[in-house]
Amino acid sequence: MAHDKPTPKPGETFRCEACGRDSIAKAQKIMDGWRCLGESVVCAFCKAPVAPPVPAGDAAAKPAADTTAARDRLASFLGTAPVAAPEFRDKRKGHFCKDCKHYFKHPFYSRCLLHEKPVEPMDDCADFTPRPPDSGEAPTGSSSGPQPPRR
Ligand SMILES: [Zn+2]
Fold this sequence. Notes:
Elements: E1 13-15, E2 22-32, E3 35-43, E4 54-55, H1 56-61, H2 67-80, H3 86-91, E5 103-105, E6 110-112, E7 117-119
Residues 16, 18-19, 21, 23, 43, 45-46, 48 line the site of zinc ion.
């Protein structure tokens, strides 16, 4: 029960007490309907919380440079959150990160090469690009790390 050890930050490895594995901490939004209440850190395997949740007030204190971008980010969170937004979900159906050409599968976690951040296979994204069916599972070409986005 005692929280007497350092809290893992998202992306850091740690030993999960809930499932007993060497895991990776993962940021998870706490949603209340359409509103983001805050963010907590959970085990990537068993989703057990590993840190006390941080209220959204922290993030809201930062100046929002672009409200449209903020709305897009919110929208992609909503796609994975258990909220009653059927119209929205229908519209985004099939835009899962796992089907995106920017999706990179890693043994421990999955990554978006476009946004250079960890993603869930069932996340969806405003920048979703369908993976060409013929390219198969194997990424073509270089193994020299993430490519810069070409736009
Ligand atoms: Zn765990």
